[in-house]
Amino acid sequence: MTSSIREWLNLLVRWTHVFAAIMWVGQTYYFTWLDGQFSKLAKSGPADGTNSSITNPSIWMVHSGGFYTVDKQKSLRVGSEQVHWFRWEALMTWLSGIVLLFLVYYSGSGLIDPDVADISQALGIAIGLAVLAGGWIVYDVALRSALGKSEAAFAVFSVLMTAAVAWGLTHIFSGRAAYIHLGAVLGTIMTANVWFRILPAQRKMIAAAAAGNAFDPSLGAQAKLRSKHNTFIAVPVVFIMISNHFPVATYGNKFGWEILVALFLLGWVAAKVIRES
Q1: Among 39, 105, 153, 246, which one is most buried in terms of CB atoms within 10 A?
Q2: How many CB atoms lie within 10 A of CB 214?
């Protein structure tokens, strides 16, 4: 592949990656914001002070010259074919990211730094792919275990695991490749959450609703939890993506992995502010 073709391919895939990520993160935060607003309405009770419960609260918004209202329904009142799914944004973001990973690092020279670890390109690629798969497996198993029942405990576990992966990657790959691989691990977790946990639960909910049957409420709770995790993961991933513009302060710094963990925690804080605004 000539340098000119590689450059144009890099540009095209990167544009696709950024565009898909904008759509994915945007709709993720929109729906989690809506869910938060509905939760506030449910807790506040009716405006007239009566004791009756709010069955179908509405959220009113103004945008682009019009007023919009959104209702949260507990039953399906239309055919399943009329229900719109938000799923392709996640897959396109991940696929384009993986293509970029191969294009920039696995088929280039940016993956290995002999001053960090003198390993072969093939071994580096194997380690990188193993970390992507292993990150999702560890996260998923931990969340489905007793550890996942405590939000605080799982948060501490997540920070410790992130720190361990960040430390390990910065002792195997070049600084920039280490940052990107942690971002790829987080992005893989987000995408797997959507396709392997959230969407299957939604399919079961729609099928049960279409048949007039009651569905397992734990399905919705698990899908909601995974979606919540995705909102907290998204901001650190964005921080990692733009760290390329600040090499001295990030991956080129002697405290590279510590800064990477700090970016992760800062992303959590930013996500919490956005979710609750």
Answers
A1: 105
A2: 8
